[in-house]
Specification:
Order of helices and strands: HHHHHHHHHHHHHHH
Radius of gyration: 21 Å
Distance between the termini: 57 Å
Number of helices: 15
Largest sheet: none
CATH topology: Growth Hormone, Chain: A
CATH superfamily: MFS general substrate transporter like domains
Number of strands: 0
Shape: globular
Helix content: over 70%
CATH class: Mainly Alpha
CATH architecture: Up-down Bundle
Structural class: mainly alpha
Length: 408
């Protein structure tokens, strides 16, 4: 082989590596953009409440409505990307996210908000499982841990950017209920183009989605069900902490700490997201099960300080609680998702990851509804105490299952 042949070979190899890296970035950007859509509305909830005149319970129901879309997407479409391919399902999720943003952009009442949240849930439900499985295949079987770290970091980076950008625009720019969604639409369009160019990793996908039976299915094989309990419960608790901040942080700041600046509301959630992403990256060499156990242990003091912040009306305590909640959420989500990826057979990965996300999304939404109801009937402090007790119970259950597994 001549030197010119070697040079061409090296150039071709470098080009392939560059295209591969670009594909990984594209899929991570897709995950971030989809999850950003779920927190663009976070600092806007109070403004919607004032504009459309709904109650605190309605606010939490609007936030939680996206779980309907999540469950529909994961139960009905959870296994489709294993069969029709990653790219078609990813593009379908992106298209639904665009429709969701358009509904919020032109919202004229509470029904529009419910519709927008459900569509956002569909988009994230389809894109999250698909994107996580796609990253695992792009990066390679030998580096599942890296794939999970990247997917989790992209998730929380998107959540943080969506909240802080919308909060700043709502506080300091014109059209506070429109401009955030205009910019989000632009971002979704750009990401959709690069996802279209990313390589397919499913070896022999079906010709179209029509060729596949749409049977509700997101299951866990019997042989790994016992191993699945601890990561599933950890995912529920981790995302419940995120849901509390995403739905209720602006209300908590306004009503109990008397801080009404929308940018600060967005910044509190940004703190959560930044610390989550930082904890994930800083502990990427930490074993997945160790990360999960540390997260479960941290959940107990996290919720205790969160309640104390409300009792003392202290922004400083809230900042500390947010940081602890973020570390618990980040390690819990990364560790439990990584364990799920590790125990999943290759040909059922998307289906099992979808089952995991059902647990996570349920945790993200259902406790928030409970907080809204208890807050209205008994008061916000009682609601936060109930939330803290619930998270503590889930953490202790997951700890018990994981420690029992280790002892056998």
């Amino acid at each position: 082989m001549t030197s010119s042949d070697l040079s061409r070979s090296h150039q071709a190899y470098a080009q392939v590596r560059l295209q591969h890296a670009a594909a990984i970035v594209a899929v991570a950007a897709m995950i971030g953009a989809l999850f950003a859509g779920s927190t663009v509305v976070t600092p806007l909830y109070i403004m919607y409440k004032q504009a459309f005149g709904f109650s605190q319970i309605s606010l939490t129901l609007i936030y939680a409505a996206y779980v309907i879309g999540n469950l529909c997407a994961l139960l009905v479409f959870g296994r489709l990307s294993d069969q029709v391919g990653r790219r078609p399902m990813a593009l379908a999720g992106m298209a639904l996210a665009i429709v969701s943003a358009l509904v919020f952009l032109f919202a004229r009442g509470i029904a529009w908000l419910y519709c927008g949240r459900i569509l956002s849930g569909l988009a994230i439900g389809i894109g999250a499982g698909t994107g996580t499985a796609w990253l695992a295949e792009l990066i390679g079987e030998e580096s599942k841990a890296r794939a999970t770290v990247l997917a989790t970091a992209a998730n929380f980076t998107g959540l943080g950017i969506g909240a802080v950008a919308a909060g700043a625009l709502a506080q300091y720019a014109a059209w506070p209920l429109q401009l955030p969604f205009i910019l989000h639409l632009a971002a979704l369009g750009a990401v959709m183009v690069v996802v279209w160019l990313a390589p397919e990793t499913v070896a022999q996908p079906q010709k179209s989605m029509i060729d596949v039976a749409f049977r509700p299915r997101a299951s866990v094989p019997e042989q790994i069900r016992t191993k699945f309990i601890a990561p599933a419960v950890t995912g529920f608790g981790s995302m419940a902490l995120v849901g509390f901040y995403a739905a209720l942080a602006p209300t908590l700041l306004a009503n109990q700490l008397h801080i009404t600046n929308h940018a600060i509301a967005g910044a509190v959630f940004l703190e959560l997201a930044v610390v989550v992403a930082g904890a994930i990256v800083a502990t990427r060499s930490l074993a997945s099960r160790s990360a999960m156990l540390i997260a479960l242990a941290l959940m107990l003091p996290s919720v205790a300080i969160l309640v104390a912040a409300q009792l003392e009306k202290s922004l400083a305590l809230l900042i500390i609680a947010t940081a602890l909640c973020a570390v618990a959420s980040g390690l819990g989500y990364r560790g439990s998702l990584q364990v799920t990826n590790q125990i999943a057979p290759a040909d059922q990965r998307a289906e099992i990851v979808s089952a995991y996300f059902i647990c996570g999304f349920a945790g993200n939404a259902l406790p928030v509804i409970g907080v809204g109801v208890i807050s209205t009937l008994a008061g916000p402090i009682q609601a936060s105490l109930a939330f803290a007790v619930t998270i503590s119970i889930f953490a202790l259950v997951a700890l018990a299952f994981e420690l029992r597994r280790r002892s056998t």
